[in-house]
Amino acid sequence: MRNKTSIAPGALSGSAEEVAPGLARTEIAFVNAYLVGAPGGPWALVDAGLPLSAALIRRAAAKRYGDGARPEAIVLTHGHFDHAGAALELARGWDVPIYVHPLEIPYLTGKSDYPPQDSTMGGAIAQMARLFPHGGYDFGDRVLPLPADGDVPGLENWKPYHTPGHTPGHVSLFRETDGVLLAGDALTTMNMDSWTSQVIREREFHRPPAPFTLDWEAARRSVETLAGLEPSAVAAGHGLPMSGPHVAEELRSYIARFTPPSTGRYVGRPPRADEEGVRELPPPVPDPLPKKVAAGVTVAVAAGAVSIVLARRRGRRR
Question: How many Å apart are CA 103 and CA 92, to the nearest integer?
Answer without folding.
Answer: 23
